[in-house]
Design brief:
By secondary structure, the protein is α/β, with parallel strands linked by helices. The protein contains seven helices and five strands.
Length: 187
């Protein structure tokens, strides 16, 4: 008797804020694909007086940015581990994004973050580049577009430093972007 072990194909959607990742995740969810949604909005919404931010870094309103980032990292790691029950799972941001943002804001992070990232790799990374035409600020997206460009640079450097290549998603409609991703993974 042979037992087949199924490995989940983990597909990461990442990039700076306001580039359409969540819209594509929502489209994939509507198509009944397994998705792990972005958790940062839920976490920042629970912080008091969000409007006291400096306009770019939501962590200035928390007493302990390191604790906030550790909780965020652990939640994303939990998402990664929960995906094992699916044949294919899409992630709206991943473990590396926590490190990328911490580097962008010149914050130190625990060494175990790097170990966990190396031990929990994504199979394919789709990168959403800055797209000013669709970028909007809201009560929870605090960055200006100029900040998005800087975050983009830091995120790319972080992914490359951790030996990730990524597929750049074309700047098209949500349906076209979703179709592009599905065609690339042959789903």
């Amino acid at each position: 008797m042979s037992v087949s072990i199924r490995k989940t194909k983990k597909i990461l959607l990442t990039g700076p804020p306001g580039t359409g990742k969540t819209a594509v995740i929502d489209a994939l969810k509507e198509m009944n694909y397994a998705v792990k949604e972005e958790v940062i909005r839920e976490m920042t919404a629970s912080l008091d007086d969000l409007n006291q931010s400096d306009g770019m870094n939501p962590l200035v309103i928390t007493d302990n940015p390191l604790d906030f980032n550790i909780r965020l990292f652990e939640k994303r790691k939990e998402h990664y581990q929960q995906s094992a029950v699916h044949e294919l799972c899409f992630f709206d941001r991943g473990l590396i994004d926590v490190v990328g943002y911490m580097e962008h804001f010149e914050q130190t992070y625990p060494p175990y973050f790097t170990t966990e990232i190396k031990n929990n790799r994504y199979d394919i990374v789709f990168y959403f580049e800055p797209w000013e035409a669709i970028f909007t600020k809201d009560d929870q997206r605090l960055e200006a577009f100029i900040d998005v460009l800087s975050i983009d640079d830091t995120l790319k450097k972080c992914y490359y430093s951790l030996n990730y290549d990524f597929v750049v998603v074309p700047q098209k409609s949500i349906a076209e972007r979703t179709r592009f991703i599905l065609n690339m993974i042959n789903a």
